[in-house]
Design a protein that fits this description.
Elements (H helix, E strand, L loop, with lengths): L3 H23 L5 H20 L3 E6 L11 H6 L17 H33 L2 E4 L2 E5 L7 E3 L2 E4 L6 H16 L2 H14 L4 H23 L5 H10 L10 E3 L6 H8 L9 H4 L1 H12 L1 E6 L20 E9 L10 E4 L5 E3 L5 E7 L2 E8 L6 E7 L5 E7 L4 E4 L21 E3 L2 E3 L4 E2 L6 H22 L7 E8 L6 E8 L3 H12 L7 E3 L2 E3 L1 E8 L1
Parallel strand pairs: 1-7, 3-5, 8-14, 15-23
Antiparallel strand pairs: 2-3, 4-5, 4-6, 8-11, 9-10, 9-12, 12-13, 16-17, 18-21, 19-20, 19-23, 21-22
Amino acid sequence: METIIPFLLRVCIGSALFYAFYALLLRKTTFFRLNRVYLLAAVLLPLVFALFPYRYSVLVEGATPLQTEDWSELFRQTTPIAKDQLLPTETAFNWSSILLAIYCTGLFLLALRLLIQSIKPIRLILTNKKGRTGSYPIVENRHFPVPFSFFNHIFIHPEYHQQEDLDVILTHEEVHIRERHWIDLLVIELFTLVFWFNPISWLLEQAIKQNHEYLADQGVLSRGQSPARYQLLLVNQLMGMQVLGLSNNLNFALGPTRLNMMKKQKTSRKQLLRFALILPIVAGLLFAFAQPKYQTTESPQVQSTPDISTAMTSEKETVITGIVLDEKGEPLPGTSIVMKGTSLGTVADMEGKFTLKVPSNTEFALVASFVGYKTEENEMTIDEKEKSFNLKFVMERTVTAISTEYHEGDVPPPPPPPVPDEMNTKDGEPVFIIVEDMPHYPDGHYALAKYIAEKKKEMKNQNFFEGKNLNGEATVGFTVPANGKVTNVKILKSSGSELTDDAALLIVNGMEDWTPGKQRGKAVPVDYAVRIEF
């Protein structure tokens, strides 16, 4: 329902504008052929504009940086919520389901009606005796008293009409067949079938069939038929009933308007300028239905590792030894330790220990980094007399905040260049490479932001029809572990609405599996936080 409702509304608005223009400026003109084209356009163009909206480019700045609020402490204190606790509870009235059921019921009944109406003429074509008038077969039947054409067949009741009226009737129906009015009928019947709830659909159907009769009347009179005799024949058919939607009936829309249109003088060609007035409506619909295509002015910057372009050299060196532990006192093997701004670095071993030679008598900072943990920086001053130095890093788990900003039509940024997973050399000196990979959502950040935006729309729409107001915001924390399946889902911050919290939790639990984060090729868990606002 979330995607179909805007589409249905757009088509209804478009068809209403087209019909209003026809009713005000074109209905009383004698431009019957142009009116036929216009009425078909009134049915098809709103569909085309809604299905294939015009897209225009909008330049925007690069992707919004990630939020920086620190959720680490709160993430550790909050209890995860099990996914099975978030199953939606049954409500007394599910308005979304009720509306969908009503729509489908109407669609089914009208489709059944059209099918039943069409079966009888088809059976008569297959079983009854046929004659011919010109190139068109005539089906004699006693089931339908009113003459009509059905696709390329003319149906006549053999005992209902006097022979002298037969030539006029046949001429009338031949015009319908020769000009293929059945195409218009098929289009408008299918349109009315889908948009049966829209009164404009039925008015358009009435207008199309009425215009068909004007064309047929014009065709009969152009062959020298007496207008008085022809009008008398039509009056004699006044009490007949419509046969079916896909047929052209001789007596359709018979009344003073149709009889007067036969005697009406042709509309001046100057009045053709009225059709030009539709251009602002078409332009307005294109503008109203247009969708922006956002393009970034530059690709978002990929976070880089510390500048390691130059290697520091010194005759005197100090050996720094140390250990890297997590908050629980467990070693963090694979942690990258690098001398900030240089190519000097190393990796913690399986026990979290590391050894690094640095120039003596210098001020510098050692940086320890591990995916999913807060980067630690330790500023140091090494005296030239010091031959060794012992250091301890305690790494804290961090929560990476995700930006959910998304514009429909966004162009995803190009993927970052691959990171080498081994030591390179520069001018003969070893260059240390920090090999860290953050988790990746399938198809990237833009796909994740799009997923969240679509689910928010879907849930707001569903709650609206259930009589609930989904309004507020919630920040949800979750972990992407080594297997990539979202786990440890919890509310970190809430605007106070339980309905909002449950909706936000359902969205996060419904994420696809991520590609896990890696530290030197080994999958590691990473914590995230995402703010979802309804």
